[in-house]
Protein: MBL fold metallo-hydrolase RNA specificity domain-containing protein
Organism: Terrimonas rubra
Amino acid sequence: MKIAFHGAARTVTGSKHLLTLKNGKQILLDCGMFQGLGKETNQLNRDLGFDASAVDVVILSHAHIDHSGLLPKLVKDGFNGKIFCTPATQRLTSILLEDSAEIQEEEAKFANKRGLHQGRPYQQPLYTLDDAKRTIDRFEEVEYGRWFFALPDVEVMYSEAGHIIGSACVNLRITENGKQTHITFSGDVGRYRDVILKSPDIFPQADYIIMESTYGNSLHDPADSTPELLLKWINHTCIEKKGKLILPAFSVGRTQELLFALNQLELENQLPDLDYYVDSPLSIEATEVVKSYPQYFNKKIQKIMQTDNDPFAFKGLKYIKTVEQSKMLNYQKNPFVVISASGMADAGRVKHHISNNIENSRNTIVFTGYCEPNSLGGRLMAGVQEVGIFGIDHQVHAEIGSIRSMSAHGDYEDLSQWLACQDPQQVKKLFLVHGEFEVQEEFRRKLLKKGFTDITIPEQHQEFGLGME
């Protein structure tokens, strides 16, 4: 058996891990899109690094685009098998992929319109809406905690990951020549004290572990401090400076956390009397999906729902659906708060809001999660004084901030707790993926002290044999 890492290798995006069995069957764990890597992003997304038609089955951990976003390209390039996922992941991924396909088509159209005058070759979209719809037809839903056969001699069970609604860790039992090998892929590990979701679950003893490591060297601020920090930024920007507060946020997970925190402030009679906009049709749709799975919420929020039937709604909340409504926000002079996708500010309506407000010192842009260093969000958080947006250079006069308590990724303590159910002496090899290399090296040193003996940080497209120790 072999495993090859075709994404999320020494970076936090593009999750793709390919298992090849002795009989030639291939299992793909996630098929994510690369995001925020500058000029190389496009080429990385166009070259999967393997033959899509040779893949027999996909096991999807969760809906985020950096884990699911290249599924339509996989189908376009010849994949003809099933895509397994949890029910909530199926619904969320469906709307995310259709949205992504529309973006691919629009970006190709824009590039070709501009390139026509510069003599550049015609650019095909990465995939189309039809590709996305054909992909969605391949989904097969499986509930948590149930072993099922993805292929003959390949059993899979999903365990709760606590990252976003429907997110799962993938546990595999693979039988070859009468010998069973246990492999666990973490997907993205959430937080054990998440304000909305259940904590990650324990999982069976594994021979091999493929583990995310985004925050493997750091600790988050307590999650219960989020409403307090959010209130601080609202008062500072909208009340004191009379400006606009822009909150870039991913449509799935982060937007709902922000709405829940604002709802908490209203319940405590602390929420300032302002307009609060969610400017992202995708975020609106995703919020409705999240609301439809209350069984995945933790006990605390389920108790809140006994007296508050919608913990994601509050006075002053307005949803922006059309492009025209979004543009009108540029002419509103009164202070307000806008939550808009995407979280790294590399695409979506939030990029327009930043472009229109970044040169005014009264305004504030507060990032609510991880930003890849080369993304617009990453550069702003690094303190650059000038950024190019839509081909126009902007001086950065708006205040830039962040709320570190909001990450849906577990920190060092969460990742350690996730691993605590394992006997390190029985783990033959632990692969660290989905993290920056410097972070992974530090995390590796910490794990060695915990008794894990063989910890590897794969490079892009690197392949390893399993069961050859």
